[in-house]
Amino acid sequence: MQSFIVPCLPAQNATSIDAQVAQLRVLELFRADFLGRFPSGVVLSELEYMGKTTYASTPAFRIAPGGAAPANGPVQFQGRALINSFLSAMSDSFRKFKAEGDFRKCDVIGLAETGSAQLTIELLEVTTEKNQRSAFKQIADKIDTLTRTVLPSLDFSMKADIQPASWRPVGLQNEYPTAPGTGATTIARWICYLPTQTVPPGAGVILYEVHSIGDKQKVAVPALDKDVATHLKNAFDQRQSLSDDEWIRAYFIANPRDRQTLKVYAASAGLAMAALCVFTILDPVPGDEVPVCVIAARIVGLAVAAGG
Prior knowledge:
It contains eight helices and nine strands. By secondary structure, it is of the alpha+beta class. Strands 1, 4, 5, 6, 7, 8 and 9 form a seven-stranded mixed β-sheet that branches. Strands 2-3 form a two-stranded antiparallel ribbon. α2 packs across α3, α4 packs across α6 and α5 packs across α6. The chain is elongated. It has two domains: 149 residues, no CATH class; 89 residues, no CATH class. It starts with 15 loop residues before the first helix and ends with a helix.
């Protein structure tokens, strides 16, 4: 099958809440991946290495599982001497050294003891597409500080392989609901990590954008051909255990005219309006609005993509 990037809906401006949700979701997913590879490792975010946090309202992420923060000092983990020594060094010298207390913050950092005096350390930065150039610089600067300042500050021989993480979201991990905001015409709003596909593998940068779909009762939605609507709703209701991409592609193979109709509709009304139209046809039960919004956006994206 030909490889291509499916067009997304127009990106919305990311709020501070969106940024927190996007980062914490990556933290959650990467933690599962990292601990799957290194069961005795730890995964932290922001200033957790100092026993602090940027997100005071999310206690589940304040201290990594198994950690305990002294009253005045870095987070420490029982039975992980190398990790504890490195975190202690970070709490002293993981800085920019331009002003007092200018400590660096990793969006996500994983540490694992992989030898008697060996650490494996992986970093991730999470940001919007327009800030990706800054993210590449930040991760390079942080790795440089960890390698040339933090590691040499330890008073015993320790080796550390410090690299950008190669992990990235896949499949259903690429969308995650966020707060719908205060708009009166919003059905659902979600984080989309698909822009990460444009980042070179192993760069350690996760890009996201924010999508939303408005309320069909507040927006005039141009009608779609009735036959297309019937075919689409039937395919959606009969999808069973197929993945979204599988049943959507099967639907388009069986109904090539429907795909062309949706493509023309999207070109005329726009991707967002086309997704709202499809959402209306799929008619989700209450509580399923966000996942069905994502499916509607995917249907439109695949309809307008070449070579699918």
